[in-house]
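Weekly puzzle thread! Below is a chain. First person to post its structure in token form gets bragging rights.
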Amino acid sequence: MKRPIILALPAAMLLATASPGLAQEADLTPPMQDIGFIFTTFMFLVSGFLVFFMAAGFTMLEAGLVRGKNVTMQLTKNVALFSLASLFYYLLGYNLMYPGDGWTITNILGAFSVTGLEPVGLEGAEPDLTYASVGSDFFFQLMFCAATASIVSGALAERIRLWPFLAFVVVLTAVIYPVQASWKWGGGFLDAAGFQDFAGSTVVHSVGGWAALTGAIILGPRLGKYGPDGRVSPIPGSNLALATLGTFILWLGWFGFNGGSQLYMDTAGNVADISRIFSNTNTAAAAGAVAALLLTQVMYRKPDLTMILNGALAGLVSITAEPLTPSLIEATLIGAVGGVIVVFAVPMLDKFKIDDVVGAIPVHLFAGIWGTLAVALTNDAANLFTQLYAIVVVGVFVVVTTAILWYLLKVVVGLRVSEETEINGLDVAELGMEAYPEFAKT
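Winning reply:
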């Protein structure tokens, strides 16, 4: 806190000695104890809207990787899921994620109260000036919750009905995600055990990946994807330009995702750490993309753009569990392994006839697991067995809860569209409009 004092006091002294009028203006200078609160709150807000822009990235990525007859459905799902997450996270999820002193009866009942913000102008409030405003923290954490639901959307594209999917999103964002996140970020038992997950390789990305995996298995593959002889039929996306744009938007948003997870911007040391996080995040993404570029050239004799895009995203997911402590060389290696994982995991899922339209499971689940384990390579506070323990605990919880939810939705209301709807496209049958009405269906 010394540097803000050095900067602020001379300015106040100059104003005080210049004239009586200017001296009165000096009273507008924030008290020194407010400076850290102001800067940390500002960091959360800026980081939060960077992560919000990732919603556009997921939307464009999915719109580009599905066929033209299903683009409007993906656009609708992404707008709707973000909006539902925004509502149900404040109605229930945020308080579930931060249960205060733990899961006591009082705190469990308190979780069913609506999230409250500070009064206007902090009138009559006594905020914790060592941290940030409740509003900024809620806003930032909400973006992580919504991102988890976005991961599921792309994997199950082109054959899931809209309303059952949105019902799943409500439960995921209001209960499933917040409960497991409380175990680490809410000061729960995984945090007490020493589990390290800086920005959510497990808490966010693996959770979305596990939910997508259970959904893909229960829902089944798209028509024509897998032949009776085991042959895999590629189903190209409608617009690789949109998919590439979506990847770059996600890449940009990730600086807020990881950088904001420093949680404080009140000292020179914290600001320096944020810049280090930015550099490592970018390096890991680049390494993932290059690894996928080179590996697909070797394996298929031609680079595969979709693999390269997912390689960059896998590099980002891989570094998310610990973007602060690695050197640039270590961040390069962590990100590159993520890119390699994607190239091998995509055909592996096809062998098991698990149809993931956008590659969300390899990127967010498999690379998320790798990134969580890799923390032990660069952070002395991390223990490999504790990291593995947390992966298993979160994985079992999410697989069991989401599998039950997917199955109930399948039995009660039905998950999948009819064969006729799937063939003609979900846009016309489910929504009555097409994204590209001037083009013939593909």
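Puzzle host: Confirmed. Bonus trivia for everyone else. Confidence is low (pLDDT under 50) at residues 1-24.
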